[in-house]
Amino acid sequence: QVQLVESGGGSVQPGGSLRLSCVASGFTFGSADMTWHRQAPGKEREWVAGITAFGGDRKYTDSVKGRFTISRDDAKNTLYLQMNSLKPDDTGVYYCRIGGSGYWGQGTQVTVSS
User: Fold this and answer.
1) Which of 23, 31, 69, 91 has a Cα at 20 to 30 A from 108?
2) What is the CA radius of gyration of the chain?
3) How many CB atoms lie within 10 A of CB 75?
4) Are 88 and 34 in contact (CB under 8 A)?
5) From residue 42, how far is each of 38, 39, 92, 93, 110 by CA, in Å?
6) pLDDT tens, 15-51?
7) Closest C-alpha to 32, from 78, 93, 95, 81
């Protein structure tokens, strides 16, 4: 049974940092492309970042380039999203996903506010 469990969300002031984690199970994590997405209140869910299997390639949506870093630890079956210089527009529920699949985590809330 595929499971993706996010954690690490919270409330921070603008300019702060958070690191999200997504612990995966039920599939061969190391062989899977993985992505992070987010959904702001009243908006559609959007892709934020992606990392290929074995971490060879990483991509980001323009609004987070230079601030967010996606990474993975295949030994721990864990996907990460390091978020620095957070802005109020980064507020939303963050989800991890097996790239291109219908498998999503339950999400973790990130709130950036002064």
Assistant:
1) 31
2) 13
3) 8
4) no
5) 12, 8, 10, 11, 15
6) 999 999 999 999 999 999 999 999 999 999 999 999 9
7) 78
